[in-house]
Write a structure and sequence with these properties.
It is a single chain. The chain is α+β, with helices and mostly antiparallel strands. It folds into three domains: 1-45 and 276-305; 49-181 and 258-273, no CATH class; 196-250. It has seven helices and 13 strands. It has helices at residues 2-8, 12-45, 156-161, 196-208, 211-218, 228-250, 275-304; strands spanning 57-66, 73-74, 81-82, 84-95, 98-108, 113-116, 121-124, 130-132, 135-141, 165-172, 177-187, 255-259, 269-271. The strands form three sheets. It has a five-stranded mixed beta barrel. A four-stranded antiparallel β-sheet has the order 5-4-10-9, with no helix packed on it. Strand 6 and strand 7 (121-124) form a beta hairpin. 20% of the residues are buried.
Amino acid sequence: MILEQWRADLSSDEITFYLITACLVALVCFGFVLYYLKRARLIEDTPTSKIRSAAQGYVELIGAVSVGEAGELLAPLSGIPCVWFDYKVQRYRNSGKNGHWHTVDKGTSSHWFRIDDKTDNCVIDPQGADVITEHSRTWYGNSQTPNQGTDSNHGMLSSLHQRRYRYIEKFIYIHDVIYALGHFQSLGGGRHIPNNHKMTGEVIRQWKKNYDWILEKFDKDESGEIDMQEWEQVRKAASQEADKRRSDMSKMPTTHLLSKTPNKQHPFILSTHSQKKLAKRYRYYVVTSLVCSIVCGYFVVVLVI
């Protein structure tokens, strides 16, 4: 009854505006339904692989976090030790009677770290990942650079009147157990070694960049040029060098890497939440988006009738 009375008080232009807005919001919300439902089903339906035996391609891993080659990181605002961080610095701006937080600085770490599932360890390249972590911190201060030890975690009312800056950080800590869904590949250990012909060509291309060295080593008649016979010696020497390099590559240890997938349909997810909790989180988003879509749809019906 209230909506019908509200509808009767609207002008035709207002009806058109609200109708278009409700349709757009309903479509956007329904799009989120499909988006979150796809993620929930991927998490629920993709079997967890062991690092040592994981297939090459899109896989799901669960493991304990350890540091990478860069070692332990320090979050830039708080100095908290971690292996991954994301931060924002926001300034409160007044706009008439209203105000809003405006981001003045932000950043995300791109350093690699490792996870271990007791069968092997895997390097994680976090660039491009959707990181969902339960570790976060928000506090307030009066300068763009927080003063650790004096800035405090005051409430919103205090921050609006006295503290004009808000600092937000998210972390992944050492020893966290994380859920990871992304593109898995194994490097080294004899994998992806080019054949002798291809490697020989690469060696010759490198040598040609220092043509004086080639002349010094292979120009036996000192003519200042490499003739056909001498080029044959260059090829034989390059082939021998190629065999040596291929042998060295075959002795390299196997390194497992999880990174952003080249397939845009497959999300790259890193989360400190368990697989079950993460899937439940996306299912909640599905229900919320669906309810919003239905509510907007109902408004459309009210406006049309």
